Amino acid sequence: QVQLVESGGGLVQAGGSLSLSCAASGGTFSSYVMGWFRQAPGKEREFVAAISRSGGSTDYADSVKGRFTISRDNAKNTVFLQMNSLKPEDTGVYYCAAADPTYWSRGYYYGPLNYDYWGQGTQVTVSL
Predict the structure, then answer these.
(1) What is the DSSP string of 67-89?
(2) Residue 105 reports pLDDT greater than 90
(3) Which entry of 10, 40, 41, 108 is 20 to 30 Å from 125 by CA?
(4) CB burial of residue 30 (10 Å; 0-12, 13-18, 19+)
C-alpha cells in the first residue's frame, strides 16, 4: 500500500510558476510509474505528465509540453512537477498517482483508471 501526499499548490498569476511535490510512503517508490493528473470543476480528470521508474523517460500532455517538467528523486521517494508559463486553463486540482511499472512500456500510463494509488490533490489556481 502506497500513500501519496501532494504539496505546493496555490494561487499564481498567469505567466507565473509553481512547483508541486508528491511524497510517497508505505511502498517501494522506485517500483512505480508515477503520473500527474488534474481535474477542473465540471471536467473529467486528465493526464498531465508521467515518468518511468528510473526517471529516464517522461511524457506529457500536449497542452503542457514545453511548460511543465516532471522529475523524481527515488532516494527521497518524491515526484515533482515544475510548472512554468502558467495559464488560467491550467487551473484545477492536481493529483499524483502511482501505477504498475509494466505500464510504461505498454503505454498505459495515460489513463487514470490504470493507476492504483492516488494522493488527495492540491489546488492550483491561475488568475489573469
Answers:
(1) TEEEEEETTTTEEEEEE-S--GG
(2) no
(3) 108
(4) middle
Q: pLDDT averaged over the chain?
A: 96
* Secondary structure (DSSP) of 22-85: EEEESS-GGGSEEEEEEE-TTS--EEEEEE-SSSS-EEE-TTTTTTEEEEEETTTTEEEEEE-S
Which of 96, 92, 69, 83 has its CA nearest to residue 5?
96
User: What gap in Å lies between CA 128 and CA 126, rounded to an integer?
Assistant: 7
What are the grid coordinates assigned to 42, written together? 465540471
pLDDT at 15: 98
Give the span between the Cα atoms of 43 and 106, in whole angstroms: 27
CA atoms within 13 A on the CB side of 90: 32
Q: Are 79 and 67 in contact (CB under 8 A)?
A: no
Write out pLDDT tens, residues 51-62. 999 999 999 999
HSE-CB at 106 with a 13 A cutoff on CA atoms is 10
